[in-house]
Amino acid sequence: MKPEISVGIILVKEKPIKFLLMRRENNKVWDFPKGHLLSEESYEICALRELKEETQISDIKLFKDFKEELCSIMTYVTT
């Protein structure tokens, strides 16, 4: 089974400092905009696409020198 890769983005407004969180309908939790990486898509393009799809926000500045890679493995079994 091929692992699924998700990419997210943390949107920050500097003055006064604010972070964008979204409330997910399916599990009622607050989260950053994120989604699955499409084939041949870079992490940056995926993050920008998901941000626009979920919030309609597209005019942002990326900090190219800040990247953090997090890894978590989730296994689901259905019967």
What does this protein look like?
This protein has one helix spanning 43-55, and strands at residues 6-8, 12-13, 18-19, 22-23, 30-31, 34-36. A hairpin with a 6-residue loop joins β4 (22-23) and β5 (30-31). The longest helix is centred in the middle third of the chain and has 13 residues, at 43-55. It has a single domain, classed as Nucleoside Triphosphate Pyrophosphohydrolase. A two-stranded antiparallel ribbon has the order 1-6. With 79 residues, it is α+β, with helices and mostly antiparallel strands. The chain contains 1 helix and 6 strands; from the N terminus they run ββββββα.
Could you outline the blueprint of secondary structure elements for this entry?
Elements lengths: L5 E3 L3 E2 L4 E2 L2 E2 L6 E2 L2 E3 L6 H13 L24
Antiparallel strand pairs: 1-6, 2-3, 4-5
Taken together, the total number of domains comes to 1
The poorly predicted ranges are none
How does the overall form come out from the CA principal axes?
globular
- Indicate the CATH class: Alpha Beta
Terminal Cα separation, in Å? 17 Å
The tally of helices reads 1
Structural class of the helix and strand makeup? alpha+beta
Percentage of residues assigned to helices: 10-25%
Q: CATH superfamily, please?
A: Nucleoside Triphosphate Pyrophosphohydrolase
Number of strands: 6
CATH topology: Nucleoside Triphosphate Pyrophosphohydrolase
